[in-house]
Write a structure and sequence with these properties.
Elements (H helix, E strand, L loop, with lengths): L1 E4 L8 E4 L2 E10 L9 E8 L4 E7 L3 E4 L1
Antiparallel strand pairs: 1-6, 2-3, 3-4, 4-5
Length: 65
């Protein structure tokens, strides 16, 4: 599997969340926070239609398919 930094994820990418492959629907990047790193909010849908939302630091590595 390939890995990308969270800030490189785009809508339409397929990523792994909680051991499930999910299709990314929306990505929001916040400004740099008080701890010195921007955060990325990723909204994705799994094969059952359930929406998963994760918030990670922008340099966090995410598994991509």
């Amino acid at each position: 599997m390939e890995r990308k930094k969270a800030n490189e994820i785009k809508p339409g990418d397929k990523i792994v969340i909680e051991e499930q492959v999910c299709l990314v629907k929306k990505v929001e990047v916040s400004k740099i926070a008080k701890h010195g790193k921007s955060k990325v909010r990723i909204e994705a849908e799994n094969s059952k239609g359930e929406v998963k939302v994760v918030i990670r630091p922008s340099d966090f590595e995410v598994e991509v398919q």
